[in-house]
Amino acid sequence: MGRKIKKIKKIRLHHEGNKTLLIALVVFLLLCLVGYLWLAPICVPAFWALVVLAAIVFGILVNFFQCPIRTFEGDTDGVVVAPADGKIVVIEEVEENEYFHDRRLMVSIFMSLTNVHANWFPVDGVIKCVKHQNGNYYKAWLPKASVENERSTVVIQTAGGHEILVRQVAGAMARRIVTYASEGDHCFIDEHMGFIKFGSRVDTFLPLGSEVLVEFGAKTTGNQTIIARLPKA
Fold first, then answer.
1. Domain range spanning residue 86?
2. What's the total number of domains in the chain?
3. What would the pLDDT profile of 151-160 be if each residue is shown by its tens digit?
4. Strand-pair partners of 168
5. What is the pTM of this model?
6. Which are the contacts of 20, defined by CB distance < 8 A and separation ≥ 6?
7. The domain that contains 224 carries what CATH number?
8. Is residue 189 part of a domain?
9. What is the per-residue pLDDT across 120-134, written as a single tens digit (0 to 9) for each?
10. Catalytic residue list
11. In the chain, where do the E strands start and end?
């Protein structure tokens, strides 16, 4: 039987955003200072509009780099949990030619700028392969992004013998994919797999016969939404 644990709701900021948030805070404070010294004496409403706009942009960045501490509540045997917050943009059978070289069921989640960009392992298992490939930066929701954009691939073998491939894909704005997985390590649902900075997607390749439990356009919550059940051995 899989693990059964209680859900814990906590929020923290991801360490991947420390430098970006510090720079953004300094810029925000400088803008407010310049606005106070030069804009406020001329037009007070314009000064406050500048402050509000800067605060909104900084707030979006803070939300982007949130690092929720989540625990999956339920039995993990045979389930595939969403590796990211976002929206389902692809559910289809495809030819996966980089690792499996056969047909797989692909479920893709697109993350907008307003989504948390931390990524979780979708299954418990052992990491069989980790591979990073350079590439282009097409818009992440385009089908060709999965095979032509910069990407990082992680293959996990479950206790039931299934191999699940998870691919972090850079988008038009994304310029850095971070993957914490290492070959040979044991991984678990609830653990962070990595992080993608600014606009991207995560593809999950499942064995044929898996039961998909989400629909096209559905919103997902990383480490909470069950997207599929694996076929029984």
1. 79-229
2. 1
3. 899 999 999 9
4. 152, 202
5. 0.77
6. 61, 65, 197
7. 2.70.70.10
8. yes
9. 999 999 999 999 888
10. 200
11. 79-81, 86-96, 102-111, 118-120, 125-133, 151-157, 163-170, 176-179, 186-187, 192-197, 200-206, 211-212, 219-220, 226-229
